[in-house]
Every structure is written in C-alpha cells, then in structure tokens.
Amino acid sequence: MKTSASTPWFFLAPNVIVILLFTFVPIAINLHYAFTGGVNLYPTQRPGVGFENFSTLLECGSYFDPASCRKDVFWQSIWNTAKYAIFQVTLMVLFALITAVVLNRKIIGRGFWRGVFFYPVLLSPVVVALIWKWILQRDGLLNAAMVAMDAHPVLWLAEPGWAFFWVTFVSIWAHMGFYTLILLAGLQAIPADLYEAAQLDKASPWRSLTRITLPLLMPNLLVVVVLAMIKAVQIFDEVFVLTGGGPGSATTFVVQFIYQTGFVEPVRLYGIAAAGSLMLALALVALTLLQLKLSNAEKAGERAK
Amino acid sequence: MKALNFLTRTRNGRSMDWTDWLSYAYLVIGLFLMFGPVLWLVMSSFKTEAALNEFPPAFLPYGQKSVAVPGEEKMKPVYRVKMPDGTTKELAELRRIGLTSTLIDPARPDDFVRVNVKDREPVREFKLATENYTDLGGQIKFGTYLWNSVFITVIATILTLLFNSMAAFALSKYKFSGRSAVFLLILGTLMVPPAIVLVPNFLVVSELGLLNSLWGVIWPAIATPTGVFLLRQYMLTIPDELLEAARMDHASEWQIYYRIILPLAAPALAVLAIFSVMWRWNDFLWPLIVLSKNEKFTLQLALNAFQGDLVTQWNYLLAMTVITLLPITIVFAFLQKYITQGIASAGVK
Amino acid sequence: MKNLTVRTSSLAASIAAALVSFSALSVQATDLRVQCYSDGNECEVTGDIAKRFEAANPGTKIIIDKVPYKAVVETLPVQLAAGEGPDIARVTDLGGLNKYYLDLTPYLSAARQKAWQDNFATTLPWFRSGPTDKGIYGMMSQLTVTGMYVNKTLFDQAKIPLPGPTTTWDDWMATAKKVADATKTPFAGAMDRTGHRFAPLAVAYGAKIFDAKGTPVIDDGYKLAAKKFVDWNKNGLMPKEVWGGLGGSAYRDAFEEFANGRIVLYYSGSWQINRMDKNVTKSFDWAVVPAPCGPAGCTAMPGGAAYVGLKRTKAPAEVAKFLDFLSMDANYTEMMSRTENIPANLAVAKAGVTYNVSPLAKAALNSFVADVPKILKPNFDLQGYKLNRAVFQPTAARLGQAVAGEMSVDDALKRLASDVDEQVKAAAK
C-alpha cells in the first residue's frame, strides 16, 4: 500500500462512518422534526408545518421578560443558561488555574494531590447529584453542621439564589479536575529557565505569573475556555437530578427544557424540542466562532505591538 | 527542631516561604472538599433505611442495639428506660401499643414493665448495615450486570482507541483536500448534547436492529470528538522524518500507523483510554433506552431500578452506587500516573 | 505493547464467541418478557407467582425485567411507538398508552371474561380509550388511594382531640396549626409534590375537572383550591421546599418531614403504609384519618399500577393466559397480602385480605379501604382519563412556581390552563 489519494480516507472511514450514522443521521432527523408537527415518532408520518415550531418558541412580548413569552419556561431557561455559563466558566477557569499553578509547584506527594483534584471527574452525573443532594437537602449534612453551630438550617436547594449557587458550585466541583489537567500540561511545557532567569532578576512571584506564565499559557487557556463554554451551555444531567430545574424554574436550563418537551411530557412535542435544539446549536456555533475570532484578534494585536 | 526543619523544607532544599504555606493550605482544603462528599456517600451506604431518614444525621452509621429475647423469634430493640422508681435500666422492648411500651430484661424474661413511650430512649451503637450490600446478591443478577458493564466498557474503549487514532493519524500526517472539513465535522459533534438527539438516535439504532444488544450501546458511543482532537494534537508533535524513513524502508502505510505512530502515541492513548472507560462505565440515559431486558442490563441501570414511582430504596441504591464506584476508583488509582503524565505530555498545543 | 494487543484481541474473540453461545441457548419455547418497576417487592412477588405459572404451563417462560421507574414513563412509550418493547409491562399511565394495549377478550373463555368484567368492573374503564371501548386490557396490581396521615402523638401532647370524619381541609389545617404551635412543630402539614395528590383537594372545593365535552378545564373550584394551597405554603403552614423546592413536574414526597416529626398532617397515600410501619412506628403514633372534606364532599384520589398486555407481542394467547393467572382470586390475594396493597379485584376485596402487619398499619389499611366508596366522580374520571398526566404535570410545575414565589397564583393558573390546553390539543391532532 503506497501513499495515494485514498490512503487518508481509508484511515478516516471507520470514524467518519460511525459519526455519519449515529450523529449526522439523527441531526438530519431532528431537522426534519423541527419543521413538522404532530406527535408521531416516525418522520414520514409527520405533517410539515413550516416555521410554526420556531414561531411558537419565538412568540414573545419582550425577550428579556420570559413572563411575556408564550413558552415562558424556554426563555427563562435561556437566560438561566446564559447567566450560568458566564459565572460557571469564569469561576471554574479561575479555580482550575489556581489549582494548576499550585500543583505545578514543587510539593510533596504531587501525584497524590493531582489524583485528589481529578477524582470527581470520574463520577457519573447521577452520582455527583446524589452525593450533593445528600449533603444539601434540608436533612442533609450541611444543615446538620449549621445546627451544630447554633445557626438556622437553610433551604440550600429551595431558595432560588442558593440553588443557583450550589448548582454552579457542584458543576465546578465535578468538572474542574479535567480543565486543571489541561492547564497543568501547559504549565509544564513552559521552560524552567525562564523562571530561573526571572528569579535572577529578582522578579516577584506575581510578576513572573503575569509576565511569563499567563502569556505562555494562552493557547491552553483558550482551549479550556472554549471547551468549558460548550459544556456549560449544554449543562443538564447533574442539575436535572439535583434540583429538577427548581425551585420553580430557577435552575432550568435549555437542554432540560428540550429534554422535557421531547421526552418527559405526556404528549411529546418532538417538533418544538427539535426547533429548540436547533436554536441551541446555532448559538453554540456562533459563540465558539466569536471566541476563536476574539483570540485571533488578540494574537494579531500582540504581534502588532 | 530538626523534624520541623525537615518538614518545612521544599524539595529543592529551600525552607518554606509564604507561598508554600498557602499552597499546602489550598491543597488540604481541596482534599476535604473533593473527597469529603464521597466519603459521606460511602458512610451513608452503611446506614439502615431508618438511619438515612434521621435528622440530624450521624457521620458514622449508628443503629439501634437489639438483643435476642428468650421465647421471641426476632431480635428486640433495646431502650434506656426511666423506671417508675427513678432509676434507669437498659431493657428490650417486646411491643408497643399506643403510648405504652412493654419491656423486659432479657436476663429475667418473666418480669416485664410497662412505661410511657416518653420515658424510654433507644440505645444506639455503632452498626454497619452490611445487609445493604449482602442483600443485593439475592435481589439482582450482579454477575450478569457486571459482565455487561465490563463488556461494553472494554470493547467500546478498544474500538474508540482504534477508530479515533486512525482518524487522528489521517488528519495529522496526510495533506489532502477536505482535511479541514472532516476535522471540523468531527469537532462539530461536540456541539450536540446527547440528551437532545436521544429520540432520533433511538430510531437509527432501532432500524439497525441493535435494540437490546450491547452493540447498540457501543457503536454510537465510539467516535468521540475529544479523542480525535487529543490524539491529533499529540501526533502533530511526532516528527514527519520518522515516517519518511520508514517509507524508504518500504513500510506500508498501515505498518507506519501500527508500528510507529501507535507506540509513540501511547501516552495520549492512555489518557483517552481512561476517559473512555469512565464515560462508558458511567453511561445511563442511552443504555436505558436501548436496553430493556434484564440480562442485558448494566450496573448503572440495575442501580437505578431501586427508584420506584412512589418509593426509592435509598439504602440499596447507595450501596450499589458505592459498588459501581469501586472498579473505576481502582482503575484510576493504578493509571493515575499515566493520566497526569499523559495529559501533560499529550498537551494541547 | 505488541504482545498486549494480541492478547486483547484474542480476548475479544473469545468474548464474542461466549456471547453467541449464550444467546443461542436462551431462545427456545415461548419467552414472555414482563417489564416491571418496583416500589418495594412487587416484582419479586410477581416472579414467585410466575414460577407456579411456568410449572403449570411448560413451554412458557416468564422473564421479569426489573427496570427503573424512569424507563416506564420515559423510554417505554418511545419504544412502543417504534414497535419495540416487552410483552407485558407494569405501567402507571393507564389510559395514555391505550393504543399499544392488547385486548385480552378473544383469548379468555366466556367464563373468565365474565370474571374479569365482574371483578375489575371499577378499574377496567381506566385502560380504555373511551366509552365505546369494551376491551379488557390490564389488571391493577397495585390499587392506591390517597389519604391523610396524622401524627397522633403530637395531637396527644397538645391535648387536642382528633377532628371528626367530616372535617374540611380548612379545619384540618387550622387544627393542625394549633397542634403545631402547642408542640413547637415547625409546620402544620405537607402534601406530596404531584398534581395527583392535589386533585382531591380541588374536587372537594368544587372542581369538576372536566367540561360538558369531557375536556379538562381549570375551573373555579380548581382555582379556589390552588389559592388555598399556595396560601398555606406562603403563610408557613406547609413547608415551602416540598412544592417550591423543585422544578418542572419533578416528584417529591414529604415522608421524611413526617417521619422526623416536622409536620402534623401528611397528605400522601396507601403505598406509604409499609414505610410508616418500618420507620415511624417506633418513634410516634400515626394514623390515617378519613378523607378530608370540602363544600363538594369528602373525596380521595384512586391510582396505582397495572400489568398490561402489549399488542406487539408474538404470543398474545400466552400473555392473556398469564395475566389471567395473576388475576385469579388465590394468586391475586397472595399478591395483595405480600405487597401490602389494596385489592382492585372486587371478589378478593369482598373476601378480605389478611396482611401480616402491625395493628397501626392494619388500622391504616382499613381506613383507606373505607375511603374508596367516598371517592367523587371527578376524581374517578380523572384517574380514568387518558391524558391525566397532562393535568397532573403542569399542576405540579405551575403551582410549584407559585409556591416558590416566581409568579402570582393567578398567573400560575393562567399558565396552567394554557399548558393543559396545549397538550390536549396536540394529542388530538
């Protein structure tokens, strides 16, 4: 077998066929669902309705006021997701960065500590939710500690503000380890002599962080932010088990809305669910392109300096 | 003094400065936050159903002490009783009717006392509710589920490594038209959360006749975008000269992939292997819709079968959860070195 | 590295071979797959009875697939719509899945047909698509009735007598509030978070649930009850976190609140008896009181789970035979006795079932049984309505939002009405 035009395709074929079959065919079916109505499962039995599913979702007095929308929960979930993505990604990347910097230091038992911070990544979303439910519910561990300290128990998962906080906290807890490792990899790729040189120059730790570490870590940081953003917008399983989207709709996110519309409600509206998922996909693509563009512009700016 | 010196020294011999102290403080808080909750789960799994409902919850599994009473079939619960004469005694409760409790001393089974239920308190002792675990064997076909879970995890991981590395090889070592399009197409699947293509994917798998087959869980899961991305980035760092030299020696392209690229990409493959094992082992929603026959069930499905409509058997559910955590924790403990080193060397460049 | 690869591939080959022989062994005779979810020991008891069936019918094998409840409500309907699924399933959405049911009538002898029609006269309509449908589709394996549990010890401590059998919801809450205040109990009462538990309250306060055409409506009675209920939560009579603590239509019971003595009254149902007996009896005295009342009467909500035959089966005669076997008085009595459930089989109910439970639990069961004849028509019809979940789920979701303080009761009721309407219209398309 000599290198020919078909060689790369030979190597690509298995992976690409699986993707076409189990990702792109379902996406095509979803597209078809988005433009058809009724409750039938088989695409051929569904009557076309044009853009009706989209207009149902988009029917709104003001997009900033979910209560004025026909599908109020959908718009509430969009705003929740936006708020969540901003907070969660910012905090998680920050803590992942701090953790990576600490783990990159010359500490005793480095392998052990890395394992500690990575361990929650191994847990399934259902288990993550279960663990924290057991801690945060009214009769949970945290309230027992509050009572022991003579404080009043707090309804951690029933007060909208706290519920949102804990959902964010738990997702950071569960996923931070993965991003920490990517950043750690970047840190280790930074040549040690740069730091030694900085030490000779009597540069403060803060200065070597901002002048050496962060700039050289940029490519990894970018990957981390893009990946974390994509995952944050897709948040679903662990929150669904932990709060069910509550209290009220305070932690209902877009994927949960889609899942419930297409899978939980007694009359399953596949069309509405598919239209919602299409809008979600568009938003994700736009968001990713925007981030890549911003980082390119930044790079170009750096070079211009 | 010497010991303190030793402890406060960092590895390059300097003594600890404030940044070191801060680092260790951060790590210890991290240990508490990351492992504490898991430990709590393990503790809870050893509690009886009644103890699980209690508030405030005890950290260690406590249960009410019980003793055998002559002439009674079942063990009887022990209470600390305030006797009418003001003394307290530990007695076993025979029965309780309304607000009156009938108790006896197991050593003197002929005398019994009747007291108001307010005057007795349960005697508690440290008791592991191991029956949460031992009962499982009788209730579920544990071996079958374990086998199914292992089968899915192992086969899917092998196929993931094979398919993803082949694709990554093509994307990193060949120049051909359509390369970036294919790469984008693969990465684009990151944008599709599994929960929203559940129903269409079910239709595809059902048309292919893969329902109630472990392969119905395996095939849709193996073409991971993360894997292709990770391996491609790593393979980009393998020098092209190695490949050219092999081609001079008349090695076929397959041999180049198999003999040169794969061994060199071992660290990245190890990382992907760990991720794949973790993903497949933890899968729940997709197996739930594909597999509905008990002999095809995975551990995750069996575990959730303790959730009923109106009642959830928490004690069994927690015990089963801990059991499913064990294998992955062990795998992780052994491969931990590779994951931290592997990702470090795989890097994302 | 190379060695390792060789070994793993031969391992894969032997795994595959083992799998083939495994599956070849298991196809023979007629297998009936029974999909079963469990709140306790229902699947095990069914399995035991199935063993006797297999002994009497060599050639038929009953395989019980115990699944999470999520599989029954979420994935089973999709599987059935795609022509897949088991032969028999234990379901709770009795009317909603009607189009997939197997009519057992042609497979039953005339005598057995009559026995089914007589013994299950009250519940057979729940499975049917409408009044013209006369099919026999399924057998209630668990008949439940909603009802109110009280913490009698708290009443005793407060020295307040238990109110009588025709006490209204309002009076119950007022009395319980007094008890709670006297005993420093945080809350008067709580109700499981589901529209199913809310329905008796609504009907007691005059909700008709359906209009003249049989379409569900959120009428004045429903609204009145909703306002009362939200007020109870807002005024601190009920713990807000039960209904306000979750989102969407997620289910949550208030058993823990009751077991820990944090509420005086607990509105739940007959399925809790077993748990009460196991976990609560040793801490305090509990009892089930007669169905609470309202201006329209005293009522409760029936419910439960049933075994149904599914049309897609390749062995309809065997499916009918097995369900018939389960429904026979002796077997049915055993099932009720061991699962501690209320019989839906009227002959069995009349003969009585012996339960091996404590005196408290026995009294509770009797109280539930006594409530059954009181159930008002709208509650009965709602249970038999094929889209009843399209009423229950938005009720939990929207009233939950009102309790959480996200919207006013009036807005919640408007949204509730339009949610129900949307689902009903979509189903009619």
Structure description:
With 305 residues, chain A is an all-alpha fold. Chain A is built from 12 helices and no strands. In chain A, helix 2 crosses helix 12 (270-304). The longest helix of chain A is centred in the C-terminal third of the chain and has 35 residues, at 270-304. The radius of gyration of chain A is 24 Å and the shape is globular. Chain B folds into 3 domains: 2-43; 62-126; 133-346, MetI-like fold (Orthogonal Bundle), CATH 1.10.3720.10. In chain B, strands 2, 3, 4, 5, 6 and 7 form a 6-stranded antiparallel beta sheet that branches. Chain B has 349 residues and is α+β, with helices and mostly antiparallel strands. Chain C folds into 2 domains: 27-143 and 304-351, 3-Layer(aba) Sandwich (D-Maltodextrin-Binding Protein, domain 2), CATH 3.40.190; 145-302 and 371-428, Periplasmic binding protein-like II (D-Maltodextrin-Binding Protein, domain 2). Chain C is globular, with a radius of gyration of 24 Å.
Tell me which CATH architecture of the largest domain in chain B applies here. Orthogonal Bundle
Instruction: Tell me the distance between the termini of chain C.
Output: 61 Å
> Main sheet of chain B, how many strands, which sense, barrel?
6 strands, antiparallel
Order of helix and strand elements from N to C terminus of chain C: HEHEHEHEHHEHHHHEHEEEEHHHHHHH
- The average pLDDT of chain C is 89
**Ends apart, CA distance between termini of chain B:** 46 Å
Uncertain runs of chain B are 1-11
Given the helix and strand composition of chain C, which structural class is it? Answer: alpha/beta
The structural domain count of chain B equals 3
Level of helix content of chain B? 55-70%
Kindly report the oligomeric state of this protein. heterotrimer
- Estimated radius of gyration of chain C: 24 Å
What is the H level of CATH, i.e. the homologous superfamily of the largest domain in chain C? Periplasmic binding protein-like II
The amount of helix of chain C comes to: 40-55%
**What's the CATH topology name of the largest domain in chain B?**
MetI-like fold
Helix count of chain C, per DSSP?
A: 18
Biggest interface goes to: A-B, 93 and 92 residues
How can the largest sheet of chain C be summarized?
8 strands, mixed
Number of domains of chain C: 2
